[in-house]
Amino acid sequence: MSNNSETIKSEPVKIKREQIREAVVEIVSDSGEGAQKCGQSLGTISAKMGNGVWTVEIIPAEIRPPARSKAGASGIRVRMGSKKVTNMGDHADMVVALNEQVLYGRIDQNAYKPGTYLLIENKWATDTEESNAAYTESIQKFKALGYIIHEIPMEKECLKHVSDPRKGKNMWVLGLLCNIYDRDLNIAAAQVKAIFSKKSDDIIQSNIDLLHAGYAYANDNLPMHFTIASKVSKEDFVVMNGNEAVSLGVMAAGIEVCSMYPITPATSASHAMAEKMESAGGLIHQAEDEIAAIGFAIGASYAGQTAVTITSGPGIALKTEFIGLAVMAEVPLVIVDVQRGGPSTGLPTKVEQGDLLAVLYGAAGDAPKIVLAPSTIEECFHYIILARKLAESFRTPVFVLTDANLATGVQPFPRPKIKSAWFPDPIDQSKWEEGVKAYDWDPKTGLSKRPIPGQKGGMYTLTGLAHDEESHVAYDPSINQRAAESRSRKLAALHKTLKEPKILGDKSGDLLLVGWGSTRGAIEEAVERARERGAKVSSLHLHFLSPMEPGLKSIFKNFKKVMTVEINYSDTIGNSLITEENRRYAQLAWYLRAQTLTDIDCFSNVYGQPLSPIQILEMLEKKLDLTLTE
Fold it and tell me: At residue 6, does pLDDT exceed 70?
């Protein structure tokens, strides 16, 4: 234990629970110590108790970063509340750290506040002379920042039950947090059994023992105990992350082929599918590279069964030529892009919304395609079903843009009730109607019926070259013009079926915030908090990005100022070289300015972190000249 008298001692106390509406908890450690599994379990337990939950993983850039280092922080943030939770929240209320050095990176990211509880493994106080000095210095710094520190002998306590505390400390911490936040110990034990279901009975029992030991330690030694009201719904809920939702959406859509190459943060979607896809009548093909993956998917789709390929930004770059082929040949295809930081290899484990313009325009020539952006984990499931339907109806690739925040975040949502309408019709093998061409473009909609290989009389040559209605190579310039118009007209036809986006707040005011993707929860919570303080601010969230949802220009006219909120790069006015003339805008802002000819501002960053409501509120304070934060 530290000898500093200011540190709160762990003494037996009588439990008195404080009722709270929500809590934001982080578990941080070196890689391989199971912090993420601990937090995922805490989130799942809370969701099963009827609490709102959102989790965000803290993943280092390196696979094996140096131990006890600022760069090596690995862990998770869990926000649990009495109501629905849609984002990671503001500052953490409590942090469990398996060493003190991993806290520095989080402090630099403004994750904590004065009054945040730090529960720190105290073995480093006596481990070595070097670690003792670093530990003592850190404790002093943390106290100076206003954190409330509890030094806890985690390893010593775990050694009472296991010989290697690295293989058990996370479950001991889970028990500790279950006591602090009044989590149901029976649900927690069931969760531990589920985690280790493929292990031996002895391993399962030792981890349950650790869970109970951590619970008992908090009961006897910690003075802070809380309870978060929960409301168990009569409706059946499921708990999962966005990649799991995507994988289940693939199967619910009746898609039988997923071809992909492993890439962070998309890979876990294939892991989830690998356990169930075969039993659902499908297969996962792991190709030798990203190019081969989309080529395989296009081949499967051409054969009549629309396929999906799942990737991230660098994979999209490699798939670009094949995406153009699917557009030109009008082959239905679903492409899931789990966005991460870029460019190039960029930030593989960090969140960014940097691929919007790449998927819209990253192809040779004019290559229109449909682009969807789910904003919740539940939408990650349903948008795959929608994407498959649109791909087949419009004979085009359909992008589904998620990101690392959605991919790894855990959230409960109502269990989907399977509908037969989700599944594709049987492959049409009836005789092809005589006189109908392979690309018999409707002059109004640009749509055409798709021949399926094997249909008698429906044979045609598929080509990536410019072609006419019969798929003959186009040498006449007017044919290429007509074909390009037909492919573009399909988006206009889809646009006619869309509804105007809903506005959160008043339909006119001082400021309208516009978002897309995983920023929705943070934006809407910030707007609601700002409106409670008298701000005339509203928001809308876009789900269709190509074609764009209708009515935007007329909506924008009702606000004095319109601003996008995004997680991608934009220049900030203030640098001596940046002017209104040369400023580079965030990607949705750039796109909306072109589409609506409206002077749209933007607020964005590329810190690689999900946006928090407090960040948006602080921005609103400056824009509206109001005091919105406490």
Answer: no
Identify the band that residue 3 occupies on the pLDDT scale cut at 50, 70 and 90: very low
Block residue for tokens 């934060």: 629
**Read out DSSP for 181-231?**
TT--HHHHHHHHHHHTTTS-HHHHHHHHHHHHHHHHHHHHH-S--EEE---
**Mean pLDDT of the chain, nearest integer:** 93
Q: Give the distance from CA 540 to its chain's centroid.
A: 19
Q: Please name which of 161, 165, 164, 183 lies closest in space to residue 174, comparing C-alpha atoms.
A: 183
- Any idea what DSSP says for residue 438? T
Structure tokens given for 2: 């530290």
| Residues 6+ away with beta carbon under 8 Å from 98 | 28, 29, 30, 33, 35, 121, 154, 169, 173
Query: Could you count the other beta carbons within 10 Å of the beta carbon of residue 481?
Result: 12
Q: Residues 53-85: pLDDT tens digits?
A: 999 999 887 767 888 888 888 999 999 999 999
CA 493 to chain centre: 30
Identify which has the larger pLDDT, 428 or 88: 88
Which residue is it, tokens 């008195």? 16
**485 to each of 368, 445, 593, how far by Cα in Å?**
10, 10, 23
Instruction: Give one DSSP letter per residue of 511-556, joined into a string.
Output: EEEEEEGGGHHHHHHHHHHHHHTT--EEEEEESEEETBPTTHHHHH
Could you give the CA distance from residue 561 to residue 570 in angstroms, rounded to a whole number? 18
* Phi, psi (degrees; rounded to nearest 5) at 379: -65, -30
Instruction: Specify which residues 414 forms β-bridges with.
Output: 237
Q: What is the pLDDT of residues 465-488, one digit of tens each?
A: 999 999 999 888 999 999 999 999
For residue 364, pLDDT beyond 50: yes
Cα gap 616→604, rounded to integer Å: 10
How far is 118 from 405, CA to CA, in rounded Å? 25
Place of tokens 């400021």: 511
Distance from the Cα of residue 163 to its chain's centroid: 37
User: 500-513 pLDDT, tens per residue?
Assistant: 999 999 999 999 99
The pLDDT score that the predictor gives to residue 68 is 85
Task: Say what percent of the chain tops pLDDT 70.
Answer: 97
3-state helix, strand, coil in the chain (%, to 5): 40, 20, 45
Q: How confident is the model at residue 630 (pLDDT cuts 50, 70, 90)?
A: low
Ordered domains of the chain (ranges, CATH):
18-228 (3.40.920.10), 241-422 (3.40.50.970), 503-624 (3.40.50.920)
Beta bridge partners of 24: 79
